[in-house]
Amino acid sequence: MKLLIRLSIFFAALSISSLPSSYSCNPKDKNTLLQIKKHFNNPKLLSSWDPQTDCCTSWTGIECTNGRVTLFSMANDDSVVGQIPDQIGDLPELRTLEMSFINLTGNIPRTITKLKHLVLIFLSWNRLSGPIPDYISELKSVTFLDISFNKFTGPIPGWLTQMPKLQTFQANNNSLTGPIPNSFGSFVGNAPNLFLPYNKLSGKIPESLSKIDFQAVVLKGNGFTGDGSMFFGGNKRTVQLDLSRNLFEFDLSKVKFGKSMALLDLSHNRIFGTLPRELTELRLERFNISYNRLCGKIPRGGQLQTFKSYEFAENRCLCGSALKKAC
């Protein structure tokens, strides 16, 4: 699902930024791009960036609208090494910034705050490090922020709640620490999709999150403890919830499920109780409650019958046809 979300947003941006234009590349933008090329020691990836040609029509990874650069894509070449250049902030009409699957180091420069029209940020699969800079909160038009597969440290930034258009925050596979901020109980816009798996996060989930209607929350592979039931609710529109491989401990039999739930993974926790019959009414595409402390008979009906025995395995006393174990 994460990949589908990302691809749909990225290709939508491509279609918008690549609209036909009779304008040639703005000289200031062109000069900025050439400085960026020099910053990275003229890599082969940017060999098409010839000063004698038009940057809007001939340069790899560049798209323009009315002669101004609106998309910058520099990706999939691990021979590119270095920090994000300060000059990236000198592309004032930039909407999409893609610098993924290369070897970026350091942190995100403050000059990024000059990009007031920036909507999409893809910086995954690099070696960026340090705390996530608080000045990113100044980018009020950003809808998608992906910093996954880096080496970021420090807490989850509470200022994410102050980004009014943010729809998705992906920070999986970093070294973030601490709890989910209390401020996540109130967003100035709609609650974004949160992808935070495989960090070093811990602590209890703030009760204030029970009021928030997330579409997707993935907390897999952290050290969260206590109650995780606040992510559920009969009136919520959550599609994906992955709390697996934590230390959550709550009674599943008391949980109410929203009708939109399709991807549910609660495996490898300390969840107890019985499986609610409501689960048979959901159109589940993925389901795993293995390695918990659940008991009782597995309800029959719906999509529950389509899942394998290992997705129910290693519980205290679950029984039923899925486990081929009589009750």
From TrEMBL:
For this UniProt record, the keywords arranged alphabetically read as follows: Leucine-rich repeat, Membrane, Receptor, Repeat, Signal
Q: Where is the signal peptide?
A: 1-24
What residue ranges carry the coiled-coil annotation? none
Span of domain Leucine-rich repeat-containing N-terminal plant-type: 27-65
Establish whether keyword Repeat is in the entry: yes
Intracellular or extracellular location(s):
Membrane
The principal localisation class reads membrane
Task: Identify the domain of life.
Answer: Eukaryota
Q: Identify its membrane topology class.
A: Single-pass membrane protein
Q: Which PROSITE patterns match?
A: PROKAR_LIPOPROTEIN (PS51257)
The protein's matches in InterPro entries, at most eight in alphabetical order, are given as: DNA_repair-toleration, Leu-rich_rpt, LRR_dom_sf, LRR_N_plant-typ
- Looking at the UniProt record for this protein, which Gene Ontology cellular component terms does it annotate, in alphabetical order? membrane
Q: What is this protein called?
A: Leucine-rich repeat-containing N-terminal plant-type domain-containing protein
The organism named in the record is Brassica oleracea var. oleracea
